[in-house]
Write a structure and sequence with these properties.
With 182 residues, the protein is an all-alpha fold. It has helices at 2-7, 15-34, 41-66, 82-107, 125-147, 155-160, 163-181.
Amino acid sequence: MIFIYNFFAKKIKYLDLIFLNNFYIIRILYGSYVFKIDLTIGFLIFFITLFMGLSLSKRVTQIQINQLKPGNSILKYSLDDLRYLLKYILVFFSISLVSYFFYIINNFNSYIADLNLFKVTNHPKDFLIILLFIFIIWIVRTMKLLRNNLIDKDFYKFFIKDKFSYLCLIILIIYLIISNVY
């Protein structure tokens, strides 16, 4: 599969993103097989759409940083594609958000979303809601940064060094610690 990506799919617009996304999903599937974890359709929908949104975001930053014109030798994408790519990012992040919302509803034992997309877990319900709000804030901020061309380095490197992302993570960890103590 890597051979096909490197010599064929990498050179075709949008097909490269599908292959990259599949590499992430294969890792999840392999990990679930090794650790004997049953995955649900909802879980896969969440991560497929999240990873696609992240892959598209990486492409957008590559286009913006390199100011790629049509016919460039770096990528099959150009500045002309930005409008569509940003819309696709919003669509994929939104689907990921909606699937997480259904996960929360499922964990509240609500019959509204009795779709069997997710397994009920024992995570604290208030933690799931806090995570939802942080996820929404992170997505909105990411979209704003991308639309305003404010990410000046590789997308993943930016967020590895991003203080706001660390703040969100610290809030979640502190909440988990506090909720387990009391």
